[in-house]
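DM between two lab members

TW: hey, do you still have the MaoC domain protein dehydratase entry open?
JB: yeah, one sec
JB: this one, 137 aa:
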Amino acid sequence: MDIATAAPGTEIGSLTADPVTRHMLALYCGASSDHNPIHVDIDFAKAAGMPDVFAHGMLSMAFLGRLLTKLAPQTSLRSFGARFTSITPLGAEISCTAKLVERFEEAGEKRAKLELVAMDRKSNDVKLMGEAVVALR
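TW: and the structure you got?
JB:
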C-alpha cells in the first residue's frame, strides 16, 4: 500500500521476524553492545525471578525499524518512537504493522504520521506501540 495515496486508518505495511532464539539474542548483544546477562544467561534470569532469558526491548524496536525502511527510505524518517508494553520471551514471533494516521505538511514538506505495533503472533500480546513520521516524496 502506498503511503501517499492510502486512506487514513489503512494498514500500509507489515513485517514478521523469525522466532526469537537464544542465538538471535546473543547476536543482538554483540551488535547492540547491550550485554545485560538477563538476555543471555538463564541462571542470571532465574535469579532475577524470571523463568528464562527474554529479548531486549530494542530488538523488537529494530524490527519496527526494518518495517519503516521497507515503507520509506531511511533518509525520509523524521521521527520514530515506541513504548514498551510487555516482555518478549524466547520463541515469540514478532509481527509488526504500520497504519497511516494522517498526512500533513510541516516545514514545507509533505509528511505522514504512522502508528506502529509489534506483537507476538503466537500469544497476540502487544510488545511495543509507537509512531513514526516520514517525509513523502
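TW: got it. The first strand starts at residue 11 and ends at 16. The mean pLDDT is 96.
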